[in-house]
Amino acid sequence: MLPGGAVAVRDTKDRSRQLTFSSQEWAAFVAGIKRDAFEAR
């Protein structure tokens, strides 16, 4: 976790970059995973 509650994750297609999400965005993403809102490829 970054200062201010932001979350950084590595871009698997471009490892030189990181994606940064606010704590609210990350919480919404995790909640979506828990309720199976995303389709697996």
Concise account of the structure shown:
Residues 3-34 form the DUF397 domain. The chain is of the alpha+beta class and 41 residues long.
- Series of H and E elements: EEH
Structural class: alpha+beta
By oligomeric state, this entry counts as single chain
Summed up, the helix count is: 1
DSSP summary, beta strand count: 2
Order the strands across the largest sheet as they lie in space: 1-2
Describe the global form: flat
Largest sheet: 2 strands, antiparallel
Distance between the termini: 28 Å
Q: What Rg is obtained from the alpha carbons, in whole angstroms? A: 12 Å
| Helix percentage range | 25-40%
In percent terms, what proportion of residues is strand?
Answer: 15-25%
Kindly report the average pLDDT value.
91
- Sequence stretches where pLDDT stays below 50 over 5 or more residues: none
What labels would you give this structure?
two-stranded antiparallel ribbon; DUF397 domain-containing protein; DUF397; 2 strands; 41 residues; 20% strand
